[in-house]
Amino acid sequence: MAVTLYVPRKGADGRRLEKRSRGATINPTPRYEKEAREEFDDGWTTDATVRPMTTVMEERAKTIITRNSSPDIGFDRSINAYRGCEHGCVYCFARPSHAYLGFSPGLDFETRLTAKPDAAILLRRELSSSSYRCRPIAIGTNTDPYQPIERTRNITRSILEVLAETRHPVGIVTKSDLVVRDIDILSQMAGEQLAKVGLSVTTLNAQLSRTMEPRAPHPAKRLAAIEALAKAGIPVSVLVAPIVPSINDHEIEAILAAVASRGATHVNFVLLRLPHEVKDIVRDWLARHFPDRARRVMSIMQAMRGGKDYDAAWGLRQRGEGPFAKAIAARFELAAKRHALTIGTVRLRTDLFCAPRTPSPQLELFG
Question: Is-contact 69 93, C-beta < 8 A?
């Protein structure tokens, strides 16, 4: 059993921490820690406030391709150049993964990040293996590959350069318009059916977006990115995720209409997921931002999860079950049909892959 320690709600300099610019309103103790910490106001904090700053640590990984055997997702391998995500989406199902680093899935997830600067080198090495068999690689399955630090780190772009060189298929998921920076690479690959991009659109309401995902790009920028990618010949799908009952579920039809008009061809949706610490983070967020609907949201979520906050069973974790879940799916299917959108994803080629060339150690003798 974890021992609870009560700690003052303030920064190292005694100033009160300001969390308005972040998604999570709490910073729960990682589930693997022996001691649990609970904040309280000790009355000694000053009136001055300080916003928690973002820190980035470099991670020297040994491998870069992660494999999975989950039967309800459409890929078996992925790459995540970063851990943690500054977008700060309060609902992010990847938050619990930060506990493996000893960090909180709350504020730590969006302020204490890690980057893998050797990602491209590791990828080239793994693709060079004689045992490697080509299948599409997914980028952005855990944390966003185009979060703000990518503007200066360029790790995602370096990965794409290796994939383009080896003609390896790739699917990207992001909620950032920064992806248009790499249109030069992606359009070339898309011409050979080697690339596709999925944009996540949670809401068209700028105010709601700022509350749910405070540092992610404005919805209008995402729509513009969809249009730019489509005009460049890159297949674009849209993920309406997560759908949160009584918060953004009324926007399903409007979102599909908007993305169809910008050139998206495929769509899908995911119901709000509340694994591990996420359920507590979302509960606190609802109580602070939507006190009039907080109980109703959780009641509907539990009705779609067999009475629980979350059900991790394959096939159910993304869609739920019961009347409300069926109604959401039916509305989504009808709206997709109305706008000639395909529910699903684009298939990519795997037969063009050419393993990267690795220089012979003997040739280095003549350098």
Answer: no
**Dist CA 315 CA 216 (whole Å):** 28
Task: Find the helix packing angle between 323-338 and 252-261, rounded to 10°.
Answer: 30
Backbone angles phi, psi at 13, to 5 degrees: -95, 10
| 245-282 tens-digit pLDDT | 999 999 999 999 999 999 999 999 999 999 999 999 99
Whole-angstrom distance, CA of residue 273 vs CA of residue 283: 12
Report in angstroms the alpha-carbon separations of 198 from 26, 168, 176, 345. 30, 17, 10, 9
Dump pLDDT digits (tens) for 346-367: 999 999 999 997 655 554 454 4
Residues 6+ apart with CB under 8 A from 153: 81, 115, 117
| Dihedral sign for Cα atoms in the order 350, 351, 355, 357 | negative
**Residue 3 within a domain:** no
Residue 93: inside a domain, yes or no?
yes
Count Cβ atoms below 10 Å from residue 205 Cβ, excluding itself: 14
Q: How many domains does the chain have?
A: 1
Confidence (pTM):
0.87
CATH value at residue 197: 3.80.30.30
CB 215 within 8 A of CB 88: yes
- Domain contains 41: no
Domain extent for 251 = 57-354
